[in-house]
């Protein structure tokens, strides 16, 4: 894989990309995006993720997992159905998994059960994990301290403070930084100024969380250049250093990108 920007988290299988998928892909390539990783959300999203991973094998890579907001009372049946596809694609990670206490605090117990099950699977498959931790940083850290994935992983869409970043690094994991770093109401720039680039990967979470000046629009991988420049300003370095360091970090945490 040639040096460039790696979007480590992009829902490019979303219906909002169907009409101009090829154009979106070309815009991304024109801006130096050399690879994207598509997380899975539930049973229904699997076919589209697999389709793009199969049709664009050198640009789209896939994760296998059940999103915490998709964890229902029959979560075990959901996971069994998803894992029937575990050998159909060369998955690079288990994700998007984790805990979400923003939408529904009452489902925490089953979210934790589903997360534990997937952390065990990640260890068995020797794959890193991609973690969703909305309003649930402490709970997610506690789960990882019990069942630490040996292959590591990424705290996706990290928006925490300095001490929370240190907790992530103490778990030998990385933080995913996207459009939020460009927002006025965030302390991410100050956090990055302290922690540096050694544990940072880039992501968009497309079609969500577009960076300034594109807020209110559908996000896409080509706009990671805005994120790169903001991170460079925060870390007082050249944008090329951001690209080079995050590129190597992505290959380290997701080694199957090189297969």
Description:
By secondary structure, the chain is α/β, with parallel strands linked by helices. The termini are close together. The chain is built from 9 helices and 8 strands. The protein has one domain (5-258): Alpha-Beta Barrel (TIM Barrel), CATH 3.20.20. The protein has an 8-stranded parallel β-sheet, sandwiched between helices.
Number of helices: 9
CATH H level: which superfamily? Metal-dependent hydrolases
Oligomerization: single chain
- Mean pLDDT figure: 97
Can you tag this structure with a few keywords?
TIM Barrel; 259 residues; eight-stranded parallel beta sheet; single chain; 9 helices; alpha/beta
Quick overview of this protein structure:
The protein has 259 residues and is α/β, with parallel strands linked by helices. It has helices spanning 21-30, 46-55, 75-83, 108-125, 137-146, 162-170, 188-195, 224-235, 239-253; strands spanning 5-7, 33-38, 60-64, 93-100, 129-134, 153-155, 174-177, 200-202.
């Amino acid at each position: 894989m040639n040096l460039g920007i790696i979007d480590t988290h992009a829902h490019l299988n979303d219906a909002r990309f169907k009409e101009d998928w090829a154009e979106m892909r070309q815009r991304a390539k024109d801006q130096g995006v050399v690879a994207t990783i598509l997380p899975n959300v539930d049973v229904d999203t699997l076919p589209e993720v697999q389709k793009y991973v199969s049709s664009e094998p050198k640009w789209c890579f896939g994760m296998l997992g059940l999103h915490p907001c998709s964890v229902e009372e029959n979560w075990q049946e959901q996971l069994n159905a998803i894992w029937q596809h575990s050998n159909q694609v060369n998955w690079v990670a288990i994700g998007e998994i984790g805990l979400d206490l923003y939408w529904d605090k009452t489902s925490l117990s089953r979210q934790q059960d589903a997360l534990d099950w997937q952390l065990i699977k990640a260890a068995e498959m020797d794959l890193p994990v991609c973690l969703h931790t909305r309003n649930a940083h402490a709970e997610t850290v506690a789960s990882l301290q019990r069942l630490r994935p040996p292959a590591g992983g990424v705290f996706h869409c990290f928006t925490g403070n300095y001490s929370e970043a240190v907790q992530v690094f103490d778990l030998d994991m990385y933080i995913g930084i996207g459009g939020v770093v460009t927002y006025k109401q965030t302390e991410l720039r100050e956090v990055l100024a302290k922690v540096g680039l050694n544990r940072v990967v880039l992501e968009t979470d497309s079609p969500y969380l577009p960076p300034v000046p594109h807020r209110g629009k559908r996000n896409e991988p080509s706009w990671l250049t805005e994120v790169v420049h903001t991170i460079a300003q925060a870390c007082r370095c050249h944008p090329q250093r951001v690209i080079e360091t995050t590129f190597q970090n992505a290959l380290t945490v997701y080694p199957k990108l090189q297969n």
